[in-house]
Every structure is written in C-alpha cells, then in structure tokens.
Amino acid sequence: MNGPHVTFIAGEKDDRIVDPSELQDWMDVSIQIDYEHEVWTDGRSYWINCVAPQLDKIRASLGLRPRSGYHITLGNTK
Known about the structure:
The chain is of the alpha+beta class. The protein has one domain (about 1-10, about 35-78). It has one helix and five strands, in the order ββββαβ. It has one helix spanning about 55-60, and strands spanning about 5, 35, 40, 45-50, 70-75. Strands 1, 2, 3, 4 and 5 form a five-stranded antiparallel beta sheet that branches. A hairpin with a 3-residue loop joins strand 3 (about 40) and strand 4 (about 45-50). The longest helix is centred in the C-terminal third of the chain and has 9 residues, at about 55-60.
C-alpha cells in the first residue's frame, strides 16, 4: 500500500505526534541504512531488518525514545 519504506516515527506509538515542520533541519541530510539480506514475513507483511544510527539521532532531537531497531517494509497483502 505505501511502497517500500522505513518507519522511524510513528505518532500512535510514541509519547506525542511529531509535526512535519519539526523535521525541517533534517530534510537535506543523507541517511545511511545498513540492511540484512534476509526477507522476513508474518504472512501479511514482508520486511528486511536494518540499522540506521542517524535515525536514532533524529528521534533524540525530537525528544522521542530510542527504538530497539528498524526494518524496511517491502510490502504487505492488506
């Protein structure tokens, strides 16, 4: 539905909803994402695990809690 993506801010799961204007300072920053090559599925969604320390820095700058890891959503069958 949403195409491949890495979700690193999910307002419904954090302490507050982030306004897109708060990300303005990060718009031109290149983000390095290191990923595994194994595709995972739960029968509904498909993803690969990844590491992106810069996403942790962005979350911290917004006052959000760190995450235990990230993944690249490849697609789903919704």
